[in-house]
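Q: May I have one protein plus its fold?
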Amino acid sequence: MIRDAARSFARDRRLPRVVAAFRDEVFDRAIMTEMGEMGFLGAMLPESYGGAAASHLAYGLIAREIEAIDSG
């Protein structure tokens, strides 16, 4: 489920904006906020610190899907 959510986010919401940001030479800060709301930033942190308490494997799956769209 985590991989599917990360893949969907990366392809549907991130890809079009990354292409536009690359073309226009800008950084879309809102992408980071959205990734945080999805639990993709700090995924392995405990819930008491605002993380998702995900496993190392889950974090790797998230990273793989995000990096497939933009590794920069």
Notes: The chain has a mean pLDDT of 91. The first helix runs from residue 2 to 24.
